[in-house]
Write a structure and sequence with these properties.
- InterPro entries: DNA-bd_dom_put_sf, HTH_17.
- Pfam families: HTH_17.
- This is Helix-turn-helix domain-containing protein.
- The chain has 109 residues and is mainly alpha-helical.
- Helices cover 52% and strands 9% of the residues.
- The protein contains five helices and three strands, in the order αβααββαα.
- It has a three-stranded antiparallel sheet.
- Helix 2 crosses helix 3.
- The longest helix is centred in the N-terminal third of the chain and has 25 residues.
- The radius of gyration is 27 Å and the shape is elongated.
- The termini are far apart.
Length: 109
């Protein structure tokens, strides 16, 4: 499309309106569809750093099948999502949570 010099202000105004509309649509889409956590794969060193463990400790956990891992050839890969879930699965209840009655039933002492 070619515009004359006199048409440029109107063309730019229309362009701004369209860009603003696209921006609004993207923001609306983001609020309706919260982004899933990225499931990037990590190398053994990256996973060790992510978990604040040494590489040898991580190898030990892999050999004992204590931690979720993917193996391709001789390489090990770790999913960030799976590692996060693995860490969360080890959560211990607080004293308050242990002593809270559930459904009105008092736990035996």
């Amino acid at each position: 499309m070619k515009y004359t010099f006199e048409e440029l202000p109107q063309a730019i105004s229309t362009l701004h309106e369209k860009v603003d509309h696209i921006k609004d649509l993207l923001l609306e889409n983001r609020s309706q569809n919260p982004q899933r956590p990225r499931d990037d794969l990590l190398t053994i060193r990256q996973a060790a750093e992510f978990l604040c463990l040494s590489v040898p400790t991580l190898y030990t956990k892999v050999s004992r099948k204590e931690i979720p891992v993917n193996k391709r050839g001789k390489r090990l890969y770790f999913s960030i999502v799976e590692l996060s879930e693995w860490v969360r699965s080890g959560r211990k209840k607080t004293t308050e949570e242990i002593h809270l009655p559930t459904n009105g039933i008092i736990p035996p002492t």
